[in-house]
Amino acid sequence: LLLGKGATKKMVANAAITAGARVYTAAAGKVSPTFGSTLFQVGIALTAAAADGDIIEVSDCAPIKTNS
Fold first, then answer.
1. 3-state class of 28 per DSSP?
2. What residues pair up with 43 in beta bridges, in sequence order?
3. How far is the C-alpha of 66 from the C-alpha of 46, rounded, in Å?
4. Which of its termini does the chain have fewer beta carbons within 10 Å around, N or C?
5. Angle at 45 (CA atoms; ends 65, 26), nearest 5 degrees
6. pTM for this one?
7. Mean per-residue pLDDT for 6-34?
């Protein structure tokens, strides 16, 4: 499904992420809690990730370009 359409999405974290944190694009198709001027916000984490590689549930949105 496209981002911002349909149900929540399962995504792979690249680091620890707390529930409620905004998530952004990251290398290798993962998501990150770290904001960056060249990244896109893709949603808000509904579940937490303890470490790299954990799968989290995300309330996704259409990608939003972040600005510095």
1. helix
2. 23, 60
3. 20
4. C
5. 45
6. 0.90
7. 96
Whether the CB-CB separation of 27 and 53 falls below 8 Å is answered with: no
Question: Which position has the token pair 């399962």?
Answer: 10
The per-residue pLDDT of the chain, averaged, comes to: 93
And the tokens for 55? 């799968």
Cα 36 to chain centroid distance, Å, stands at: 13
CB 21, CB 45: distance < 8 Å: yes
The pLDDT of residue 68 is above 60: no
pLDDT in tens, 28-67: 999 999 988 889 999 999 999 999 999 999 999 999 998 7
| Two tokens, residue 1 | 């499904």
Q: Which two tokens stand for residue 7?
A: 């149900």
